[in-house]
Design goal:
13% strand; alpha/beta; single chain; 259 residues
């Protein structure tokens, strides 16, 4: 379905981003990977994604730095020929009461979770509009639709990305470029595993008990959303069937925001 298209997927060396990169590659899209990891890990991921028969590049841009984001878009365009699909997935988290929230953590979370998407979109959008086709998928969160305590920066950044998605969608409404957001609930990524481990230690629970406790607080299905489920939605949003889905914030959350 996406043969000949080129996608940048930020934060794609693990977790949700890697799931999306794999799914887009399976549909024929070339991939510019981005994220952190050891050289051996990155080489393994690159080889695995390339095993789907597509061209795969890697750029280690720090998504908190606009200059490096510009270099990422330039590298994808130079090495792979173009940017048709942009998936803004990179994200970081910190948990603390607002009055104790470290200022540097606030600034970093807003930079990676929100400002990075702005910089990547402003740089990639002109070539999408010029060709009359493009797909922008922002990985937000249920925390872009509802809030939780002690996650002020994350909630602010994810609400921001949902609003930014709508603005970009309106600006591109008469073009062949669409912009939408996916709002996952609990996904068992390294970021969430850390919260499970902390909950288990704090409450003196087993890991499986801590998982159920974490899910029970928010996610009525009591099941984690998988990267593969999110990736399937991202692929659909890149399809022609999704052409009139514009500015949407689509939850994949086991009923979290239905409550």
């Amino acid at each position: 379905m996406l043969k000949g298209k080129i996608a940048i997927v930020t934060g794609s060396t693990s977790g949700i981003g890697l799931g999306i990169a794999r799914a887009l590659a399976a549909q024929g899209a070339g991939i510019m990977l981005n994220g952190f990891g050891s050289p051996a890990q990155i080489d393994a991921v690159r080889a695995e994604v390339a095993g789907r028969g597509v061209r795969v590049g890697y750029n280690g841009a720090d998504m908190s730095k606009p200059v490096e984001i510009a270099a990422l878009v330039e590298a994808a365009t130079r090495e792979l020929g173009r940017v048709d699909i942009l998936v803004n997935n990179a994200g970081i988290q910190h948990v603390a009461p607002v009055e104790q929230f470290p200022v540097e953590k606030w600034d970093a979370i807003l930079a990676v979770n929100l400002s990075a998407a702005f910089h990547a979109i402003r740089l990639a959008l002109p070539q999408m509009k010029e060709r009359g086709w493009g797909r922008i998928v922002n990985v937000a969160s249920t925390h872009g639709l509802v809030a939780s305590a002690e996650k002020s920066a994350y909630v602010a950044s994810k609400h921001g990305i949902v609003g930014f998605t709508k603005s970009v969608a309106l600006e591109t409404a008469t073009t062949g470029v669409t912009c939408n957001a996916i709002c996952p609930g609990w996904v068992l990524t390294p970021l969430v595993q850390k919260q499970i481990d902390e909950l288990a230690a704090r409450e003196k629970l087993g890991i499986e008990q801590a998982k159920v406790r974490l899910l029970g607080e928010k996610q009525p299905s009591l099941q984690f959303t998988t990267p593969e489920q999110i990736a399937a939605l991202a692929v659909f949003l890149c399809s022609e069937s999704a052409l009139q889905i514009r500015g949407a914030a689509l939850p994949v959350d086991g009923g979290w925001v239905a409550q």
